[in-house]
Amino acid sequence: MDNAEKDRIRLSDRILSALELALEQNDLKISELLVRAMEQAMTRNTGGGEFIERRDYPPEIEKAMDKLYTLKEQEKN
Fold it and tell me: N or C: which end of the chain has fewer CB within 10 A?
């Protein structure tokens, strides 16, 4: 991957890749940290402190979030 390709990749995309790996490894604590980091990366520089995200998440993020909720439920039982 050259520098031009690296510049086109958003931080949230890289965090999503790490989140997907953490979920594959059933690492709930790291997954939760990565979700918070991803949310911050996606919403920084938008709308100030009272900003509410109104966009739908892309399908790959929805899929990761579903896996996270499932992992949380498994940890409870």
Answer: C
